From TrEMBL, chain B:
Belongs to the TRAFAC class translation factor GTPase superfamily. Classic translation factor GTPase family. LepA subfamily. InterPro entries: EF-4, EFG_III/V, EFG_V-like, EFTu-like_2, G_TR_CS, LepA_C_sf, LepA_CTD, LepA_IV. The gene is lepA. Its EC number is 3.6.5.n1. It is found in: Cell membrane. This is Elongation factor 4. It is an enzyme of class 3 (hydrolase). The keyword tRNA processing does not apply. NCBIfam families: lepA, small_GTP. GTP binds at D29, H30, G31, K32, S33, T34, N148, K149, I150, D151. It comes from Streptomyces kebangsaanensis.
Length: 410, 622
């Protein structure tokens, strides 16, 4: 979650949604994202909404501390229940992200999940994921999560190389994430993801291959691989600007992506989103697919974004302000936008084109269709799916996805 | 406070012996307008309380830049201190101060018998002033040398009096010393005008002949034409004839300026005033033309008339293509008041619809561009200024090229380019730098004279094309701003010129075509190709950028195909931001110009075509 919030109209104090947002809700899956805005240290590349202090004070002296954070978040889950009213849906996915969720006690995470179960009910086959820092979990912690209902876990591995981790300010030692995978399996986690970052300044092609090999060796069923984005305002951006660290050329990013695709597919993984690979359909992250397919989700926690039936809104960023709003019974929503039909069409194109299933061509207008034919002839779209009415990116097309989107939305 | 004297002779009944017609030759900032203001006050035609600085300069841009583009004439009654009872009529004719308007200056001078040579006592004479002084001498005008701003601490009246005396051929003691600001010495100057400048001489009973030395469009009154009567008399309500076109008009009004327009019965020999005929376009009332009466008019026009001839051309395009009709309307309006402005529609594959506009010179171009942008609120792209080429083909046909992209293909016999005679005035320490600059611009030294111990006049023949590029900026930077430049056209010369085309992905970009000397073609090609490589974003395919002469490529760069254009992450919180980014990128894409299949940002055109850029690269070449 990027730290800068978009502009939007205000959210009503009670968080109420316009009636149309809930129309037809029963046909859409519902998920929950729970944000934990705490980290032990801030990594130089990170611009997420996270804080290293354990206690932050909000307006009116309301204390937002790591220790009572779970309680505050449960308050928002109860608010969600009120706002969604008699929405009968059970929750299909829960995803706890951060920050570093595992800085909280396992019991806290389980309690937060429990609130969702109590208020909404969890579907029998619900996917329940938490992100985890390799240094902050061990067998006992993992067992407690599993017992509490978590069935999927995602470790931030980033790289297998010490010098790369150092540029990223990651504190774990190489080898620890791989060990975590084994511990998670032992604890009974069915689905395990490793997050990797490529294109860090100072990383070589071989460093990247070594990271992929190490990740695959640990036996996850899901791998996410992201090009390092140097966000404005981060420590890393400042160091690059001062010339202390070189930037990575886009062509290098392209090369690394090709290496990832080659290595992962050779190991039996298949891409299902531009930056995500899984060993099977079942290994895909269902929660993320809710984002990409325009489903409904409630994002709880400071700065978290939500989407229900064409209404997007986002919470205040600061944990103190967040806690203060909930303590006084107000919605922590900072702003929202009501999407127009055209907004939703454009969003579908820009999100779904990133997926293996691609975009149905009947979503395109005449100019967009003409552009899709050009993209096809330039080898950016797959021939086979195109003939069945879908625009699906080729490998080269995936690297140019944003450019293709710009043409298809015309 | 002096008031208007008694017994002021009226227009049409003024004895020529009492008339003095004069102008003021001065460099920008040397105080001409302030001196004129002071004269208006001393002769009582403008009361103190109505006085505003630089009363005669009307256009905002003139006032801001401190320059005068359009001239005017004011009738000043003056009772000289040596014969107070004998009120004279002084017609002060304000001359344009810039090199681009030499022809207009020459017509203003032709309306006078004498001139005040006004020079800043802290700076000495400048090249354009010198050029106009020579012009005045050729017209046999009586010259009154005057040093202004003698109240300034930095003034060096002795030194510059010497310089002026050498130029005019008088004694340094004869150089008047005034301060237009404080008024010191201005009365004495008016007396000198009466004493030294000859009265006009003409044939009173001959058919009327009056020379137009200016015409100005006024949105209320139509065209106001300023004339100096040489022979005969023009009377109110008669019909007049323009001798260059034969067109006749009714005289709706005739009069003099003091300084507001004041109707009169007519204008007689030697008198200066204005005519209003109701025409709406200054091209129907051309500077230099002769006005006569329709019945029993003159047979022979006065000499010296020339059609204004544009010397420099540039393509003007609206940044936003939908502003094209506004640009046309704005040019139409400006042309009402500017007979020298010519334009015709032009289509550029790269820039869309625009106009090829002809100007008298670079200042003229700058002023027009600035007025279009400021007064009409237009955002423009202007192509690099170019001159007019005459191309003779081996098959005997001849082409006049005003746009480099229209340079003919095929077998050329000769290419002629316009030449100028340039005069540069500068402190002697810069002789080396100036000669080096002129040499690299294909100049031929004509001669050099010392104006004083430490100031020199250098004369060169140069191709006009070399001057329109960035010559003046270079000259200023190499002489720390001390050099001044004047030039006049001196015909044409056959040169080894070639057209350099710039190709993007094999497609010619017409806006970047240039005609250069054979030896400079390579440098131009390398510079532009390098620049474009920096400015054009990578496309989804590899784009060669080439400079070519005909089919021969002389420089090449490659813009590598973009391989990655995708953001790695797109999760719940990124979606709004990403959609907004997409909207912004779409807007940006709209502002791209398509050259063949290549998207070129407008900024790239502006950066390559702007003169800032050419100045910068000129320095880089050294």
């Amino acid at each position: 979650m990027p730290s800068a919030l978009p502009d939007g109209e205000p959210v009503p104090d009670d968080g109420a949604l316009p009636a149309h947002a809930l129309a037809g809700a029963a046909g859409r899956p519902l998920g929950f994202y729970l944000h934990v805005p705490y980290c032990a240290t801030r990594c130089g590349y990170c611009d997420f909404n996270t804080y290293t202090a354990t206690e932050l004070r909000g307006t009116g002296g309301v204390l937002a501390s790591r220790d009572n954070y779970a309680g505050t978040l449960v308050d928002e889950v109860r608010l969600a229940r009120k706002v969604l009213g008699d929405d009968p849906r059970e929750v299909r996915t829960v995803f706890v992200g951060g920050g570093t969720p595992t800085l909280l006690a396992a019991d806290d995470l389980v309690r937060m999940l429990g609130a969702i179960r109590d208020e909404f009910g969890l579907a029998a086959d619900a996917e329940v994921t938490t992100e985890a820092n390799p240094e902050s979990v061990g067998p006992a912690y993992l067992a407690a999560l599993r017992e509490g209902g978590f069935n999927r876990i995602s470790f931030g591995m980033q790289s297998a190389r010490q010098h790369v981790l150092k540029v990223l300010d990651r504190t774990h030692t190489p080898g620890r994430p791989e060990a975590c995978v084994a511990e998670a399996r032992a604890a009974g986690f069915e689905h395990v993801n490793l997050d990797l970052i490529y294109g860090t300044p100072g990383e070589s092609d071989d460093d990247w291959r070594a990271s992929l090999d190490a990740a695959l060796g640990a036996g996850p069923d899901h791998v996410s691989a992201y090009a390092l984005i140097v966000e404005e305002g981060t420590q890393l951006a400042r160091r690059i600007r001062r010339g202390e660290i070189p930037t990575t050329d886009d062509d290098v990013h392209a090369d690394r992506y090709l290496i990832a695709e080659e290595t992962l597919s050779a190991a039996g993984f298949a891409w299902y989103e531009v930056s995500n690979w899984a060993t099977s359909e079942a290994g895909r992250c269902l929660h993320n697919e809710l984002y990409w397919r325009g489903a409904d989700w409630w994002g709880a926690g400071p700065g978290a974004h939500s989407h229900v039936g064409g209404v997007r809104w986002w919470n205040v960023k600061h944990p103190g302000a967040y806690a203060a709003a909930l303590a006084s019974g107000r919605s922590p929503g900072a702003g929202r936008e009501l999407l127009t039909e055209e907004d939703r069409r454009v969003e579908r194109i820009l999100l779904e084109l990133r997926l293996r299933e691609g975009v149905p061509l009947d979503l395109l207008r005449e100019e967009g269709l003409a552009a899709s034919r050009r993209a096809l002839s330039e080898g950016l779209l797959e021939q086979g799916p195109y003939e069945t009415g879908r625009a699906v990116l080729t490998l080269r097309g995936r690297l140019l996805a944003d450019a293709v989107v710009r043409d298809l939305v015309d | 406070m002096p008031a208007t004297p008694d017994n002021v002779p009226e227009p049409s009944r003024t004895d020529p012996a009492l008339i003095r017609n004069f102008c003021i030759i001065a460099h920008i900032d040397h105080g001409k307008s302030t001196l004129a203001d002071r004269m208006l006050q001393l002769t009582g035609v403008v009361e103190q309380r109505q006085m505003r600085a630089q009363y005669l300069d009307r256009m905002d841009i003139e006032r801001e830049r401190g320059i005068t583009i359009k001239s005017q004439a004011v009738r000043l009654p003056w009772a000289p201190t040596h014969e107070p009872g004998n009120t004279h009529i002084l017609n002060m004719i304000d001359t344009p101060g810039h090199v681009d308007f030499t022809y207009e200056v020459s017509r203003s001078l032709a309306a006078c018998e004498g001139t005040i040579l006004l020079v800043d006592a802290a700076q000495g004479i400048e090249a354009q002033t010198l050029a106009n002084l020579y012009l005045a001498m050729e017209n046999d005008l009586t010259i009154i040398p005057v040093l202004n701003k003698i109240d300034l601490p930095a003034a060096q009246p002795e030194k510059f009096a010497e310089e002026l005396a050498n130029l005019v051929g008088c004694d340094p003691d004869d150089v008047l010393k005034v301060s237009a600001k404080t008024g010191l010495g201005v009365e004495a100057l008016l007396d000198r005008v009466v004493q030294e400048i000859p009265a006009p001489v003409g044939v009173a009973d001959a058919p009327a002949r009056a020379m137009i030395f200016d015409s100005v469009y006024d949105s209320y009154r139509g065209v106001v034409t300023y004339v100096r009567v040489i022979d005969g008399q023009l009377n109110k309500r008669e019909r007049i004839r323009m001798m260059s076109t034969g067109a006749t008009h009714e005289l709706l009004e005739i009069g003099t300026n003091s300084p507001e327009m004041l109707p009169a019965d007519g204008l007689g020999v030697g008198e200066v005033g204005y005519l209003i005929t109701g025409v709406k376009d200054v091209r129907q009332s051309k500077v230099g033309d002769t006005v006569t009466s329709q019945s029993k008019g003159a047979e022979e026009p006065l000499g010296g008339y020339k059609e204004p001839k544009p010397m420099v051309f540039s393509g003007l395009y609206p940044l936003d293509g939908s502003d094209y009709p506004e640009l046309r309307e704005a040019l139409d309006k400006l042309q009402l008041n500017d007979a020298a402005l010519v334009y015709e529609p032009e289509t550029s594959a790269a820039l869309g619809f625009g106009f090829r506009v002809g100007f008298l010179g670079l200042l003229h171009l700058d002023v027009i561009r600035e007025r279009l942008e400021r007064e009409f609120g237009l955002d423009l792209i202007a192509t690099a200024p170019n001159v007019v080429y005459r191309v003779l083909m081996e098959d005997g046909t001849e082409h006049t090229v005003t746009n480099p992209s229209e340079f003919p293909e095929g077998k050329l016999a000769e290419v002629y380019e316009p030449m100028v005679r340039a005069t540069i005035l500068a402190p002697t320490e810069f002789i080396g730098a100036i000669m080096e600059l002129c040499q690299t611009r294909r100049g031929t030294l004509l001669g050099m004279d010392y104006l004083s111990e430490d100031r020199v006049e250098i004369r060169y023949t140069l191709p006009l094309a070399e001057i329109v590029f960035d010559f003046f900026d270079q000259l200023k930077s190499k002489t720390r701003g001390y050099a001044s430049l004047d030039y006049e056209p001196t015909g044409e010369q056959s040169s080894s010129l070639v057209k350099v085309d710039i190709l993007l992905h094999g497609d010619k970009v017409d806006a970047f075509s240039a005609i250069t000397h054979k030896e400079q073609a390579y440098a131009y090609g390398v510079r532009l190709v390098g620049k474009l490589k920096e400015l054009i974003p990578r496309q989804s395919f590899e784009v060669p950028v080439q400079a070519a002469i005909g089919s021969r490529v002389i420089a090449r760069e490659t813009i590598r195909a973009i391989r990655k254009d995708v953001l790695a992450k797109c999760y719940g919180g990124d979606i709004s931001r990403k959609r907004k980014l997409l909207e912004k990128q779409k807007e940006g894409k709209k502002r791209m110009k398509m050259v063949g299949s290549v998207e070129v940002p407008q900024e790239a055109f502006i950066a390559v075509l702007s003169s800032d850029d050419s100045a910068g690269s000129g320095k880089g070449k050294k």
